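Good morning,

Attaching, inline, the backbone tokens for the sequence recovery test we're adding to the shared suite. The designed sequence is right after.
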């Protein structure tokens, strides 16, 4: 996928988050373990919440930043990856966490790549702030997942 404006990129990332939530919902119906099901429910909620926060950010961000143009931002078809991903019914909590981190890091990487190719410091700073928030959320999610193991 080729991204031309920052607003397109952020919309796409929000859509990818919703797609991840749908993937976790699909995996939830296939999972055997109740602990894995609980984790997948948590991940679904997290992704929907993250997408909503990103959409709110888009609504509140300065138009000048959202209208930033890019020449060479190309990204894999993330939605197709989510739609094609499957796991066995006996998937473990570690398998689910590994899948999540793989997908999450791809989206964070896209934001980092875009930040590094931003022409203005205002746009670069906004994207770097977004990346920082995404990484903090990822850390919290991993910690919460580890705490689930303690239950």
């Amino acid at each position: 996928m080729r991204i031309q404006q920052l607003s397109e990129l952020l919309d796409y990332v929000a859509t990818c988050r919703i797609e991840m939530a749908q993937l976790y919902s699909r995996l939830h119906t296939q999972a055997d373990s109740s602990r894995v099901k609980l984790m997948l429910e948590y991940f679904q909620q997290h992704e929907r919440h993250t997408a909503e926060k990103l959409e709110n950010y888009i609504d509140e961000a300065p138009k000048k930043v959202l209208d930033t143009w890019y020449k060479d931002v190309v990204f894999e078809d993330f939605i197709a990856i989510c739609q094609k991903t499957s796991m066995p019914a006996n998937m473990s909590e570690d398998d689910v966490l590994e899948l999540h981190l793989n997908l999450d890091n791809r989206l964070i990487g896209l934001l980092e790549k875009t930040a590094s190719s931003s022409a203005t410091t205002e746009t670069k700073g906004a994207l770097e702030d977004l990346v920082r928030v995404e990484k903090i959320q990822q850390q919290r999610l991993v910690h919460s997942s580890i705490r689930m193991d303690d239950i």
